[in-house]
# Entry
Amino acid sequence: MRRLVRGFWGPREESVEALAGRWKQTLDQLAGLLPAAGPGAGAVEAWTWRHIHASGPATELRPDRASLLAALRAAQTADDWSDVTGCGLRLVTVGGPGWEVEVSGLAGGTPEFLLQSMVIGINSPDDAEIPDVELLTGVAEVWEPDFGSVTDNDVLDTLEDDGGFAPDEPSVGWVGYLSPARAALLPDGMTAARKEVRGGVLLDIAPRADTESVLRANLLLRDAGVLQPLPRPMERPTL
# Structure
């Protein structure tokens, strides 16, 4: 079983020191929420990650602030790095049978057309209990995105094929996150359970397999203006 926990936002300039802090919080939270997904029986200090590079072999990365800071600084020396685009990292860890977690982030830049992002891909056994709400809450509170979701390829395909959503257009999954400006536009007909989190609102929309309910919720939110894209060229991180 595979799911994606995602957060997206617009331009927000940040130092590598600030980004290293956010990355460490995210990796610590993953170790605490998904103890079977990494080595070391869930102990944060025992987790190791493979740092996937654009070229060359992967290298081992420890989830401590110093190692993350070094990796981000190294990313700034890459030939294709731009202070406008931001700093990207891609990390992978493998745990017990059926478990793999990949974390990809691009942050700290000020692009006018490319969204900044944090995307966590989780492969898990079919019978595993995954704390979707807590995972998205972690992304929301650490990265302060404009919108976010817990979703999978079936939902994304349905939104694109049946809802006409472009791949980079705001949307939600069976759990969704909205920044305060987006949450303020929620229509009265939106019956999903709402949870206030630091910096926005979480929506518990439907069970994981209920793709049609997720589609209907996205159409309702889009019609209400909740899912309007950030104006291009982008000038701010959230709506």
